[in-house]
Amino acid sequence: MLTKVKTKKVQYANPIFNRMSEEEIREYQFVLLKKQLKYAYRNSEFYREKFNEIGIRPEDIRTFEDYYKLPIFLNKTIERAIQKESMERHGHPFGLHLCSSPDEVVFTGTTSGTSGNPTFTYTFTEEDINFLNGFIAHMLDYGGVHAGERLLFSHSLGIYATSSILWGIRSQGVLPIDVDVRAGSKMILEYAKMTRPTAAMMTPSLAEHLIDKAPELIGMNVGELGLQAIFTVGEIGVGVPEIKKKIEDAYDCRIYDYLGELGFSCDSDDYHGIHCVAPDLSLFPNDLIDPETKQPIEVYDGVIGELIATELTLKALPRIRYSSGDIVQVFTSECPGCGFQGRRVKFIGRSDDMLIIKGANVYPSTIKQVISNFIPEITGELRIVLNNPPPRVVPPLQIKLEYGENSDSRKLADLERRIKNALHSEARMTPEIIWCAPGTLEKALTKTPIFEKNY
Ligand SMILES: [Zn+2]
Fold this sequence. Notes:
Number of helices: 11
GO molecular function: ligase activity
InterPro entries: AMP-bd_C_sf, AMP-dep_Lig_C, ANL_N_sf
CATH superfamily of the largest domain: ANL, N-terminal domain
Protein name: Phenylacetate--CoA ligase family protein
Distance between the termini: 45 Å
Strand content: 15-25%
Bound molecules: zinc ion
Organism: Sporosarcina soli
Keywords: Ligase
Radius of gyration: 22 Å
Low-confidence stretches: none
């Protein structure tokens, strides 16, 4: 059982925001926004063209409402096209939206490139990196990781976005033990045993996977590794109460969900979302559109919308009116766990993961969340079977589930009825359940797929 310590209030990374009201923070952000738009207009032919197409200049934007009404400038597809064009015309791969000189770029990182060619979305100048390091240091400090300590870093190393986090870890005086996740569980666990880090960074599914593997691979439980904090990124896992509790109990430490430099979840038993600690880095999460109509929607406590990103302050490749396809729920009320008064965000899914079943929008993460309430009667692993391209699904939606190790096959019908009832009331759908033996749905070290696509 996790030793209960008093929940610490999350603060903004830049202390000036801790003394400001929400309104003052918005005003401050608006000044940064105007400055950034002028900078991008002046330095990037792509952004200049975008403004010219709609017949305005950055000076014409007088309010956030003016700004939120502008069309989307960028998404992955456009990003790929303008990267190709910048290589052809200027001999660099970063895209026509590059605002600095390519010589000033000191880091470039892509997403894992699971769909299509990777994009160099995370491209920074030295000034950018130094600015971003402050946010990572702030998070480590909140998680109780201090200079002189070690941190097990098990992401895919190399050209990936997560590699930029290493700079932030070092800037805090913490030694990263960077073991590429592709080296496998045994290697990761052996390095953890040898170096005894205070903290770890990995995906929640890897953290979960190592719980099962540690006794066999290194002859000890993960709880004996002595970790005091785990920071996870990239999946919804920690937002599911059972998964958060399972990992925290097994490792006997707190798990924090973080979103790059934008924010992290607090030190509370319950999950209250990513606390947005970086108003000077991004407008996140105040610019939202309706996932279906793509029209701007207003932010209020509990609103669900698709994120439009605009990065402030960054100099190399700031994203401006960038549609990431992420669907989030935004909370504007004070955090019930720690008292943080800024915005909080829970990830709901991706607009391209959204399913429409009998006219209702259903997100895989909601299904996962409902299903996880039935652990250990089930293992929690699941696949949503798609026989046709989404979003429209001809009902019933098929879901593959693994029954638990010790479950009684005679009680499966009853379990199935209870799961269907829960999904009906909480996700507005009644699926067909396909039972699988425990351990038969493959678990990936990086990101476990949620869909099984049969088309
Ligand atoms: Zn909190």
